[in-house]
Write a structure and sequence with these properties.
3 helices, 56% helix
Length: 63
Amino acid sequence: MQNTILRANDIVAILNIAKPTFYRWVKEGICPAGFKYGPNTTGWPREVVEQWLAEKAAKSSAQ
């Protein structure tokens, strides 16, 4: 099993939002925080992002 790491550009493309909006959501705790794996590189495991999206969809459909 390969663990795919998504970068911010990947996630904003999936969500169809602007990069500043994504970083604001991370800062406000709306999106999961990524992890630093280099001095200027942050990534999010694909599984974490997919789980977060599934939880948001389930919460949205429950309302």
